[in-house]
Design brief:
The protein is 16% helix and 35% strand. With 313 residues, it is an alpha+beta fold. The strands form two sheets. An eight-stranded mixed β-sheet has the order 2-3-4-1-13-16-15-14. It has an eight-stranded mixed β-sheet with strand order 6-7-8-5-9-12-11-10, with helices on one face. It is globular, with a radius of gyration of 18 Å. The chain starts with 6 loop residues before the first strand and ends in a 12-residue tail after the last helix.
C-alpha cells in the first residue's frame, strides 16, 4: 500500500507580508527559505518558512494579500497547525510568548500538553513537546538550538464529514488510526515529523476561505514515481485529482477529500536549493522562468518587505 510520511507543507492566507515575516521568523524563529510569487496570481507573494534547509515536514507557506477579506476557520479546513518543540522546552516558549505579548493557553490531549496561540491574522497554532524529529540548526540569537522548533508536529482537521476524512487518511494516504479521545480521532504516519493528524469530531461552523485560514495541506510523496501512483489511485477511488503541476521546488497535485478539505500531494524533491544556494535561501525574490523578464514590474508591484534584521545563523 502507498503510504505518506506525513505533512509536506501547509499553505495559508494572510493580509500582511511584513507582519507575517516578523512573527514567523522573529517570534517563532523559523527561517524564511523562499521569497517568490503565487504562480497562479503573481501579484501576490508566496513566502515559505521552515527549518534551516526547508525540509518536508517543516515548511509553512503564505499568500499575503492586503485586499483579502477576513476568513473564518471552520469545516472544510485545517483548523490548527501544530509545531514540534524539543522535550523540556515548553517553559522557554511560555516565557517567549509572554515576552512578545502573544496570548496563549494550555490544553492537553492524548497525554500531551499543548500551548495554544494565534498568529497576527488569527491562524490557530499549537506547540507541543516531542522527542522525535531532528534538532533545527537554524537559530536566532535568543532561541538556542535546544529549544528551536523542529518542524510540524501535525495538524487538526475540521471536516464536514469526519468519517470520510478518516477514510482517505487510512485507505489512500496510509495513516494508522491510533484511537479516539473525547472529540478527537488521532492518526499517525510513519515519518518522524508532521506525522500526527487529529480529526475533530464535534460540529463546527462552516469555514470561509480568506485571511487567517489555511488554504490547503500537502502530504509527502517520496518521488515522482510514487506521485504518479497516487494520482492513479485517486482517480480509481473517485477523488478527481488535478493534473501534476510543476511548482519549481516540488511536483504537486490537488484534490478535495470527502470532508471538503483541499489536499495536495507534493514530492520531496527537488527542494528549495534548486534555484539558490543553501546559504542564500530567502535572500532574493525568485521568479519562475516565465516571469523573469517581468522582474522589474514584479518588484514594483509587490509590497516592500524587510527581513535582514531577523535572520538567524
Amino acid at each position: 500500500m502507498l503510504k505518506t510520511n506525513g505533512i509536506h507543507h501547509i499553505s495559508a492566507m494572510v493580509n500582511d507580508a511584513q507582519r507575517t515575516i516578523d512573527f514567523y521568523t522573529g517570534v517563532l524563529g523559523l527561517r524564511l527559505i523562499k521569497k517568490t510569487v503565487n504562480f497562479d496570481r503573481p501579484e501576490v507573494y508566496h513566502l515559505y518558512f521552515g527549518n534551516v534547509t526547508g525540509d518536508p515536514g517543516t515548511v509553512i507557506t503564505f499568500f499575503p494579500w492586503a485586499k483579502q477579506l477576513k476568513g473564518r476557520i471552520g469545516t472544510g479546513q485545517v483548523g490548527v497547525t501544530a509545531y514540534m518543540i524539543p522535550k523540556g522546552s515548553i517553559s522557554f516558549w511560555e516565557s517567549r510568548l509572554q515576552k512578545y505579548q502573544v496570548s496563549y493557553q494550555s490544553s492537553s490531549r492524548f497525554g500531551e500538553t499543548y500551548l495554544e496561540l494565534n498568529d497576527p491574522d488569527g491562524l490557530q497554532i499549537e506547540l507541543v513537546e516531542r522527542a522525535e524529529g531532528e534538532r533545527n540548526s537554524w537559530k536566532l540569537s535568543d532561541i538556542p538550538a535546544e529549544y528551536a522548533i523542529k518542524g510540524f508536529a501535525g495538524a487538526t482537521l475540521l471536516s464536514k464529514f469526519p468519517h470520510k476524512t478518516a477514510e482517505v487518511l487510512e485507505n489512500v494516504l496510509g495513516f494508522t488510526c491510533l484511537g479516539q479521545e473525547g472529540e478527537f480521532l488521532r492518526f499517525r504516519a510513519d515519518g518522524k515529523i508532521g506525522n500526527i493528524i487529529d480529526i475533530k469530531l464535534s460540529a463546527s461552523v462552516r469555514g470561509l476561505m480568506g485571511a487567517g485560514t489555511v488554504h490547503h495541506i500537502a502530504w509527502r510523496a517520496k518521488d515522482e514515481e510514487q506521485h504518479q501512483k497516487w494520482r492513479e489511485l485517486l482517480e480509481q477511488e473517485g477523488y478527481f485529482p488535478t493534473e501534476i503541476l510543476d511548482r519549481n521546488y516540488f511536483k504537486a497535485l490537488y484534490f478535495h477529500e470527502g470532508g471538503g478539505i483541499l489536499f495536495e500531494i507534493a514530492t520531496d524533491l527537488p527542494g528549495f536549493t534548486v534555484d539558490e544556494p543553501l546559504s542564500k535561501l530567502g535572500n532574493k525574490l525568485m521568479l519562475p522562468t516565465w516571469l523573469e523578464d517581468k522582474r522589474d514590474e514584479m518588484v514594483e508591484l509587490l509590497p516592500h518587505i524587510e527581513f535582514n534584521s531577523l535572520k538567524g545563523e
